[in-house]
Amino acid sequence: MINSIDGVISLIYIIAIFIIGLWAGIRHKAKSNGSSANEYFLAGKTLRWPMIGLALFATNISCIHLVSLAQSGFDSGLLNGNFEWMASFTLILLAVFFVPFYLKSGVSTLPDFLEKRYDRASRDWLAIVSVASAIIIHIAFSLLAGGIVLQTLLGINMYYSVIAIAIITAVYTIVGGLTAVVVTESIQTVVLLAGAIIMSLVAYNKMGGWQPMVNVLEQTNQLQKLSMMRPHGDASGLPWYAVFLGYPILGIWYWCADQTIVQRVLGAKDENHGRAGSLFCGFMKILPVFIFVMPGLFAWTLYKTGQLNIDSLKVIHEGKETINSKGIYTLMILQLVPKGLAGILVAALLSGLMSQISGALNSISTLVSYDMYKRWRPQATDDSLVKVGKIAAGASLVFSLLLLPLLNRYESIFNGLNDIIAHIAPPITCVFLLGVFWKGASAQSAKLTLYLGSALGVLVFITGKVFPASLIGQIPFMVMAFYLFCVCVAIQVVTAKLYPVVYSPQSEVLYWQSPFEALKSPGWKGIGNYKFLSVMLIVIMSVLFWIFR
Question: Which domains does the chain have, with CATH numbers?
């Protein structure tokens, strides 16, 4: 357990974020002279690029990343860093191709965009799936990771600690809306990064630098831990082709078509701020490999050299001693970090947990209000929309807490998270991609793709879990995501031929005649131009992948 000084630092941080969140939301409400739904859910569309980028990063990075990326670094080295660096490319897609349509159409939610591009049935289906995914992926998994950490560090029962943090976060989120979420997320991003950098430096110094770590990897025949591109048959189940085929399917859904993430962009002041904010986040996604994954790899070499005691993580499974590496990050805090600094690390973990929960709760309230309640009550007032959104946020939080025992069965939180996404994402990625890039994508074809693709994803997921030795159970989840996506594309293309597209005045301007059409917008002049930033980001990421290939 951490000492009292670090505990006090953590408590002060929680109280400060709570006060700042309430203050930001109430202040924005007072300045806007009212509590309209637009002000509450989208911050009155006033967000500028720095806050958008920071909020995107904060909503993405949670306790899951701090805990599970360190775990993956300990178990398999830099491999899972692919999920972080590949995100930069999908953020370029968001900035260049999706942001213009989202802002031009004036939508409040992504299901709203699907209705404008396709029809109401597609909107309804995506709204349901988006709420479910926000509850499971963005809240429940984050609570699980946070609970494991807080139980180890503070000695408090996992469920008691996450319930307390969840309630505190829910209060300022429900009261303050998106403004409170974005302001607190911006602060939490800075704290989270500071904590992660401290841990990286502590582990680096304890090991004695980079070369001693490499020497240990050489001596133990584990140099492949430094490689992000693994060969066919790698024990991890993530060879290089699985990453390049599967990640775009997961990433496009997550960064371009998931309400919890994209809602920050929907609140942008204009197209240039939306684009620059997305690309700013793309540059920030370079950091996690070095400050989240790398500490786990250092922990492994410290363990091998006797400088990190992991006896508390050893368990007996099926008669054999194994290491339950879920707790490696908290073990590093307890054994490696000096007093006082450990409190900052705990604050960083809390930042990740609170920012993820607040972002997801705000997106759920927006989806339920606009895409469900207003769907059945078109004349609903702004006050009633806000009220329903607040009730939905509270109910979803309770349901997320009930899911914790079930999700805790995954050995790796990060792999469990992505395993679920791999079976949810393919049909949604398909209808968004074809909807934006193919004029022949019809409403009927989108609806059938969402229905059939989602049903197939659930069937494959259940089959793989019930019969793990079957052919389906043996296919890596990233490769399975690609296969499911190909089936969804086939469904949409074939059904689009059977049910040709009929455009409305709205839908006929919501697709690109060609990819180059997206580049016609001049953007800002100078270094902030979205074309310049996109090219720079592509070059940097290509160099990094080459170095760690």
Answer: 4-519 (1.20.1730.10)
